């Protein structure tokens, strides 16, 4: 028994875990104090809850609680990390190294910094979507102050070699930021082991509430300086002014606790579901292409191209399945994903790509249903494509 529609778009956002909601509720109703209020019990209990959540976030990534700055999400964390570090270290240099497949919330702040006179080197990726530490080494100059490489890609799920990049950055005395929004809560992340100085995360990507995230800012070896984006009451060590959203922060903390205790089993289960989906689709359909590295990827990610169809037409046909396509609607036109193009894929194939994001609440029954549902829709759309019919005929003639 499955319930329609089925959600397989867990890279866009996840359902809030009921245990997270339960933990948050008292902080809307009875315990609604401002954690900055020092003069009464409402403030004290909110402050205590924020303190505990801060420890939960820190523990999940191997950091100390004073190194966690609460933000509104990963977009803000990325902006604070990149602009904050670029501004603070302007006297040291003006060069930044990043990657072409980063999330827009990294690419766009970097473009803004370019307008301010910073220079950014965007590394290209190989056909699997990966960079190497050697590429970073070659890009670093005496003026480099910061390297920003994402942990896991939000479209193709591939995992960049953080540990090697972190080690290199330490050797060269350059700060290392990682957008770990898709990785945190899904795979082990440790800022010490990975040599990370700044790390962005967001609660709603791992079963927490929307509108809250954190930036990890290293406090020793080295002490990382940042300039804030917001000025005001001086909250979060002056790096993020504004009243702390206690319920959301409690939710983030709870999501971290759950992730920490359930990660190994969950990664294994979700990984098997993803493999089952891939196996099912590739058995039921000819011409299915897996995008991104086959094994160095998030457990829940499957990004595939179905040649001879348009993903936007497919998604319309799949009204009972929530997945997303390899295209992004900008203001006027539909553009193929910059990530898929960076793999060297042509535009037609990029437009034929679908991202499946499996997660905590998906079941085997849903996967089996989705295989049939997608295979039928793809087959039907291909039958309507004369180009596909032509290639069928020629390949049949050739084999005859
Ligand atoms: C979702 C996402 C973001 C943005 O996170 P928000 O909390 O929604 O601002 C940034 N980077 C990556 C890789 C993401 O997947």
Could you list some keywords that capture this structure?
7-stranded mixed beta sheet; binds pyridoxal-5'-phosphate; 400 residues; Aspartate Aminotransferase, domain 2; 15 strands; Aspartate Aminotransferase, domain 1
What would a concise description of this structure say?
This protein has helices at residues 18-24, 26-29, 41-61, 74-88, 104-115, 133-139, 162-172, 246-284, 311-317, 338-342, 347-350, 364-383, 386-399, and strands spanning 6-7, 68-71, 95-99, 119-123, 144-148, 175-179, 198-202, 213-217, 289-290, 301-305, 321-322, 324-325, 327-329, 334-336, 353-357.
SSE order: EHHHEHEHEHEHEEEHEEHEEEEHHEHH
Enumerate the spans where pLDDT stays under 50 for 5 or more consecutive residues.
none
Number of helices: 13
Question: What's the overall geometry?
Answer: globular
CATH secondary-structure class of the largest domain: Alpha Beta
Span between N and C termini?
Answer: 44 Å
Written description of the protein model:
The chain has about 400 residues and is α/β, with parallel strands linked by helices. The protein folds into two domains: about 5-10 and about 265-400, Aspartate Aminotransferase, domain 1 (Alpha-Beta Complex), CATH 3.90.1150; about 20-260, Aspartate Aminotransferase, domain 2. It contains 13 helices and 15 strands. It has a seven-stranded mixed beta sheet, with helices on both faces. Strands 9-10-15-12 form a four-stranded antiparallel beta sheet, covered by helices on one side. A two-stranded parallel sheet has the order 1-11. β13 and β14 form a beta hairpin. The longest helix is centred in the middle third of the chain and has 39 residues, at about 245-285. The radius of gyration is 22 Å and the shape is globular. The two termini are about 45 Å apart. The model has no long low-confidence stretch (mean pLDDT about 95). The chain binds pyridoxal-5'-phosphate. Pyridoxal-5'-phosphate (PLP) binds near residues 103, 105, 154, 179 and 213.
């Amino acid at each position: 028994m499955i319930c329609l529609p089925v959600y397989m778009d867990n890279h866009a956002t996840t359902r809030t875990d009921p245990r997270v909601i339960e933990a948050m509720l008292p902080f809307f109703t009875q315990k609604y104090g401002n954690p900055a209020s020092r003069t009464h019990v409402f403030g004290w209990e909110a402050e205590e809850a924020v303190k505990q959540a801060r420890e939960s976030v820190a523990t999940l990534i191997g950091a100390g609680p004073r190194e966690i700055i609460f933000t509104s999400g990963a977009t803000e964390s990325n902006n604070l990390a990149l602009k904050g570090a670029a501004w603070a270290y302007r006297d040291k240099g003006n060069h930044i190294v990043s990657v072409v497949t980063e999330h827009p919330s990294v690419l766009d702040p970097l473009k803004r910094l370019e307008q301010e006179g910073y220079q950014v080197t965007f590394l290209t990726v190989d056909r699997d979507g990966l960079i190497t530490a050697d590429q970073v080494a070659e890009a670093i100059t005496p003026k480099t102050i910061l390297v920003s490489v994402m942990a896991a890609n939000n479209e193709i799920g591939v995992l960049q070699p953080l540990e090697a990049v972190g080690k290199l950055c330490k050797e060269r005395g350059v700060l290392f930021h990682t957008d770990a929004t898709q990785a945190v809560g899904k795979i082990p992340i440790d800022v010490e082991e990975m040599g990370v100085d700044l790390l962005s995360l967001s609660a709603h990507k791992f079963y927490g509430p929307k509108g809250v995230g954190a930036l990890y800012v290293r406090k020793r070896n080295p002490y990382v300086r940042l300039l804030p984006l917001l000025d005001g009451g001086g909250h979060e060590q002056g790096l993020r002014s504004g009243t702390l959203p206690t319920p959301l922060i409690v939710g983030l903390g709870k999501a971290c606790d759950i992730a920490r205790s359930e990660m190994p089993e969950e990664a294994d289960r979700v990984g098997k579901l993803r493999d089952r989906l891939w196996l099912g689709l590739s058995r039921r359909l000819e011409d299915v292409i897996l995008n991104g590295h086959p094994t160095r990827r998030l457990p829940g990610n499957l990004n595939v191209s179905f040649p001879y169809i348009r993903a936007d037409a497919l998604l319309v046909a799949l009204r009972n399945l929530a997945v997303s396509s390899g295209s992004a609607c900008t203001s006027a036109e539909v553009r193929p994903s910059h990530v898929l193009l960076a793999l060297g894929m042509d535009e037609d194939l990029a437009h034929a790509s679908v991202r499946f994001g499996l997660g905590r609440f998906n079941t085997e029954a849903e996967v089996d249903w989705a295989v049939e549902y997608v295979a039928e829709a793809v087959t039907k759309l291909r039958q309507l494509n004369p180009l596909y019919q032509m290639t069928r005929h020629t390949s049949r003639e050739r084999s005859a």
